[in-house]
Amino acid sequence: MNRTIMAWIIRLYPKSWRSRFRAEFEDLLASEHIGAFALLDVARAATVERLFSPSGLGDDTMQTYPNSVVMLIRKPSGYLPIIMSMAALALVVSIVAMHGAARGRDEGAAAHTFQLLVVAQLPILAFFAVKWLRKDRVSALSVMVIQAAAVGLALLPVWAFGL
Amino acid sequence: MLVLASLADGPKHGHAMLDDIEAMCGRRLGPGTLYGAIARLEKQGFIEPLTAEDRRQPYRLTESGEKVFAENIAQLRRFVAIGARRLATI
Fold this sequence. Notes:
heterodimer
């Protein structure tokens, strides 16, 4: 197996897992025929390890390297933006359900609350990125993708209804 | 269970386990699946690493691993016996 691909695929695993199994896992990958099935299998196993750490190898380094997405998303700066996006989404949906999708002349309290919920996330997102990207880039990026998806979801009805 | 069954035949490293499991059940496990199982079983104390041979890391069953494997096999035997009896009455 190509060494560059092997290095990349092993990087999918959490740091603590790599420090324990890297040498023997590289040896196994080098001796196996690695086709699409095996690549998918490794990517799936690495994702499971990163998300849920079933081997428990993530626990010992959790204080400084919270090497699972679940651990990171439990941090206030991880979950607060998602909750704020969901609150903004619920607000838009409830307004549309009660008053329809027609845009009023005055934006009103609901629109200002929506804007506040979206804009107030920015410093929290920046704090999250600064704090965690250096320590655990892959997990932090995974959480940031979820946070971005939540913002996108909140903005979707605004765009769809032209509010 | 497949890893325990493979190691019940003696210590093996990852590649040998994959060969053995393929010979036993006709299907080759993916490397991610195998190492997911190895990491979990080691954490549970059912298998343990031996001295590494170069970069290859052999593993063997622990006492508690042997016990768990024996319990699983006994449970499977009961299941097979009941299944066979019920199949005969169909």
